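Re: Re: ligand-bound prediction request (bumping)

Still looking for help on this. To restate: I need the protein modeled with manganese (II) ion bound, output as structure tokens. Inputs repeated here so nobody has to scroll up.
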Amino acid sequence: MTSVYLEELDAPTYAAIATSPGSTVIVPTGATEQHGPHMPLGVDAMLSRDIAAAVAQTMGAVVAPSFSYGYKSQPRSGGGNHRIGTTSLSATALMAGTDDVVASFMAQGFKNVIVLNGHFENYQFLYEGIDKATTRMRANDLSARAILLSYWDFVDEDTLSQVFPEGFLGWDIEHGGVLETSLMLLLHPQLVNMTRVVNHPPASLTPYDIFPEDPSRTPESGCLSSAVDATVERGQLLLDAITTAISRSLDSELVAVSGSPVPELVQGSPC
Ligand code: ZN
Ligand code: MN
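Reply:
Sorry for the wait, this slipped through. Here it is.
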């Protein structure tokens, strides 16, 4: 039984997986970002990695090392880049890193590269990096496919109404709120301190941004809504719904069997 995590595999095992028909690697992307006084800085990276592993197990995929830094946190979705604890990449760095990693997995034989996003602000820059990589790969006659998704987009209406019985106010204010905290209570309970949750009303967001950021526009807690209603049970509902929905969607989208010869592995220099 080999690990689902690519960094735990030896090179020959990795090579056999990468070059097998229908091979699939999932790249988790997150951020290093403050998540209020009750949760750690790595929430976005941890949750994308955990969800990637749950999805990978349903489809025989492997999970790549995570992007643990993300694009700049913004006041209207992540509290803002000015908050202590938040360490971010520029757009060009995230685009270039995504391009390099996606192209490299494809060149090593993976037929499907899934980028699983766990940090709201990343999406368009991941998109650009993937687009550049796949355009270049196509020019080299590689038949691989890439897919980009953010995990919260797979929460269905029924699950939403169970997790937010008082009404759902939108994903943008879920930074450090019920969604992430419930998933963390399920997956990393030792890293959550519910006695430190600040109970405050949802942040009132303007439909515009201000530069430089005005710190008074972010709730003091650093969260955009309160996690006071987060529970392990809600975390389980979310994880099950998300894992099932992502797996089902990918099932019909992935390149199942290689239609073209497996590209030759480029030999790295000995180290
Ligand atoms: Zn987050
Ligand atoms: Mn985030």
